[in-house]
Amino acid sequence: MSSITFAQNKWSVELRPGINFPTEDFVDSNVETGFGFEVAGSYRFMDHLGAYAGWGYNTFKIENSDLDFDLTGYIFGLEFIHPIGTSEKLSYLLRGGGIYNHIEIENTDGDIVEDSGHGLGWELGVGLNYELGANWNLRPQFGYRELSRDVEFGESTSNVDVNYFVFAVGVAKIF
């Protein structure tokens, strides 16, 4: 972003759809590539550093099963956006923070079979911020997320680790 934009605009809202690549299986079942989206707001409290918070939904299909699982919940953390060299339009973006999500296991009818309850996890991300003009930015990003929750299956409880890489392309409006 140009120095004029940084000096005047501190708030942004971003819609970020993405593709999720799981790094582990779900209990004893293979997990397929998933998808999701997030909506987040951020406030820049220093020249290049800001805080973000939002809500997200991500879903994964369990291979050879009539079940899938969804992660829904909140995201929060810090983001650092800094121009690359002398560019006024292109910046790099670094993010780090927490997620407060729960795992919902659903059947093909969309009925929730099990729910883990919310718990804390974490996320890291890196990407680019390209100023499109009129305070609109394009933000391709690559990240990693981890969440561990206990889920009850009938009378037994299993610890489920949901770890995945995400590639997302956000569109942000700066205010």
Automatic annotation (TrEMBL):
Keywords: Signal. It holds the Pfam family OMP_b-brl. InterPro entries: Beta-barrel_OMP (IPR027385), OMP/PagP_B-barrel (IPR011250). The keyword Signal applies. It comes from the Bacteria. Residues 6-170 form the Outer membrane protein beta-barrel domain. This is Opacity protein. It comes from Psychroflexus gondwanensis ACAM 44.
